[in-house]
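::Encoded backbone::
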Amino acid sequence: MARPNKRTTLREVAEATGLSTAAVSYALRGKHVSKETEERVRKAAAELGYEADPIARALASGRTSTVGVLAGDLQDLWQQQLMAAIGRELLAGDRYALILDAGGDPARELTLAKQLRDQRVDGLLVSPVDPSAEGWAAIADAVPVVSIGDALSRARTAGEVLFDNRAGIDAVLDYLRGLGHRRVTVLTPTGPSTPDRPADVYVREAADRLGLGVEVLPCAQELGEATAVARRVLTNSPDGRRTTGPGLAPPTAVFCFSDSIAYGVYAAAAEASLTVGRDLSVVGFDDHPVSRVLTPPLTTVDWGLGEIAKEAARLAVAAIEGRRVRRKRILCAPRLSERGSAVRVTD
């Protein structure tokens, strides 16, 4: 006989097993009961078609088992990979990632963060577009926040997984200078509304220290837009955004603050009949898997994406559960992966 179209309750599972509802609840969560009891309860629940009611569980526990994950810009392939890795780490602990995309817009980022807070997510992981925005303070007071990449300078976060951008930038510019490059264009996803992001400040400091002529240009991470910016750089089209640099000579190297931007430089170089790794050196900042199969493979900085995802999820879960951790601030060290896209200047 077909069962009525209604949700089987925890009480019905308890009656079928002869246990209390509390014991059944513990058994279904694998806590405080013997393995034999756990197996008996799970078998009965499966036969009865029992499924946990997420709303009831949230009301009882005050938790939704959902963690907000706010990406700075999912046009960046590396960020796509990072968000997916974080989602898998959370799922391994029976928590679910609600991934949203700020699209590189600081105002949209804060709006989405507030929406996630209001939806009662248990925690929030964010790769911030504008880490110095005042709005982060109120959000971090309402929900545990873990920042990835840059610190939220105005907020008390539950944890931070930061990139040592200063070390990464120093490594790349030192490397290019050692290859004889003196004119370097840096393409950054930073927008006009957030001009003082740490990485952009560091690159100017390093350029001054090394005596390099550097121009820093904003560049979207979407392939078509990145190609358009790179086209203007390689053809010396005026753009009105030059900062420092020795005249209008074209750069001998382009340093991209994401591998996704570097792919646009490859495309623009091909249009201009320039060969990357011979006529032009290009360096990225992510080590996305695609970068290894380019021709030539892209020299880039590896930040250890898997470990970033693992540590960010660990800090978020610890904060949600109210557990103390030994280190709330993790600093990720860069590793330069030398490949064929950066070569010594011969002229």
